[in-house]
Amino acid sequence: MNFKAMASPDFWEVGASGKVYDLESIWDILETRYKTNEPDDWRTSDFQFRALGENISLLTYKLQQGERITRRTTLWERVDSV
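Above: the chain sequence. Below: its structure as tokens.
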């Protein structure tokens, strides 16, 4: 699976700490996690999905990482594959 094809080149994310991560930073983090082959202690729940427009959707969920629980949100845009 080509993970880079799943994200827009101008993708960015705000972490639970409030820090902003650009796409390259996220790829670096994921690459490090996959190399260590250690299980991540996290769970997701309470998913809610809402269509905001013809090709835009909002996904919200709860993320539990160890003892820390945060509410997360992400926007998804459907685009034609190139």
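The beta strands are 12-14, 20-22, 42-51, 56-65, 68-77.
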